[in-house]
Amino acid sequence: MNGGPAVMDDPLVAAALTARQNAFAPFSKFKVGAAVEGSDGRIHTGCNVENATYSLTVCAERVAVFKGVSEGERRFKRVAVAADTEKLTPPCGACRQILWEFCGDVEIVLVNPRGRIEEYRLKELFPKPFDVSYL
Ligand code: THU
Question: What b/e readout covers 16-29, taking b as 16+ CB neighbours within 10 angstroms?
Fold first, then answer.
């Protein structure tokens, strides 16, 4: 689906696209931005931050969630992920686990800089999560 200008007017989508510009991705060159809307309406953003060890890289989604948590937020009601791909980039497996913990079955908007957009529920992407209900 092509969202057009209305999509770019969505503050959460705009925040994810803007955050992407700060991506630190010298190794993969694959820049990602994310934005999460807290239960109080505040938006927290993140970008991927890579490391020369590769494995210490942190994805944009986790940076956004952790920034929000560190600001006192505990629950997020929407998530946007921005990358420059035609096949829109979804959160990786590790991020799906973290998103489940802090968002539950949240709406996830995937977008690219040309306004292509898709919406999912986390449960579609992550149908049988492990969580506190098993502990
Ligand atoms: N990456 C993210 O930040 N989020 C995603 O949803 C997919 C992958 C990052 C990790 C790494 O810096 C680069 O993209 C390539 O995997």
Answer: bbebbeebebeeee
| CA 77-70-131 angle, 5° bins | 55
117 lies in which domain range? 4-126
The residues assigned a catalytic role are: 61
- Which of 17, 30, 56, 65 has the most ligand 1 atoms within 8 A of CB, as the residue to mutate? 30
Domain count, the chain: 1
CA-nearest residue, atom 4 of ligand 1: 59
Residue 102: which CATH number? Answer: 3.40.140.10
- For residues 124 and 132, the answer to whether their CB atoms sit within 8 Å is no
Domain assignment present for residue 36? The answer is yes
- 122: pLDDT strictly greater than 90: yes
Look-up of token digits 């791909």? 85
| CA 30 to ligand 1 centroid distance, Å | 7
Is residue 131, in this structure, part of any structural domain at all? no
Mean of pLDDT values over 66-70? 98
Q: Is residue 44 part of a domain?
A: yes
